[in-house]
Amino acid sequence: MSSMPLPTRRYTVAEWEKLPERPRYELIDGELTMQAQPSINHIDISLRIVVKLFTYLQGKRCRVLQEAAVYLRETDQSIFVPDLIVVCDPSKIKTNYVVGAPDLIVEILTKSTAKLDKTLKMERYQQAGVREYWIVDPVHQTVDVYRWEQGADRPQTYGSEDKFQVSVLDDCEIDLSLVFPEPEEPEIDPASIEKFDEDQ
Q1: Is residue 52's pLDDT more than 90?
Q2: What is the C-alpha to C-alpha distance for residues 127 and 115, in angstroms, rounded to an integer?
Q3: What's the predicted TM-score (pTM) here?
Q4: What pLDDT is attached to residue 86?
Q5: What's the CA angle centered on 19, arms 14 and 25, to 5 degrees?
Q6: Is the pLDDT of residue 140 over 80?
Q7: Which of 5, 58, 76, 134 is the most exposed place for a label (fewest CB within 10 A)?
């Protein structure tokens, strides 16, 4: 999710809770950043992943949530809003945010958030006990998957034609050819070709 900084001022989580629902804000160490409108491609990729996870999780304990506010630790003055999360402990889901580490977090890169997603956010997610973290790159059509639960500090990178198992969900496979589909070739109307030939 793209973001832009607001004028510098320290905020508490209690103050964050009183902010309007739109626009949405993240709170990082007491500083607010406003969530900007995502691109159509960003929305499309997010939706494709959500549909796959939502379908798989039907009737199961875990839930997939889009743009849910996450309060990782009560000692922090930080509220993160990842693109997608999967939470398998229902007691963590409150009215306004999720309290504690989700089992899976997915961030979809934008120019304005790529550095933050790969550094500070990734570090905080790992420290808080997130079991699996995906960094989705729409431009290069790759997904870096960090499986911290398995003790792996380095990601496995998957491309647009790859499939991979979601380690925190049994028998759940992601087919990236369905997340990053090839653009469809436009159909050519034979009549338009004939007209073009006549005009030459």
Answers
A1: yes
A2: 18
A3: 0.86
A4: 98
A5: 100
A6: yes
A7: 58
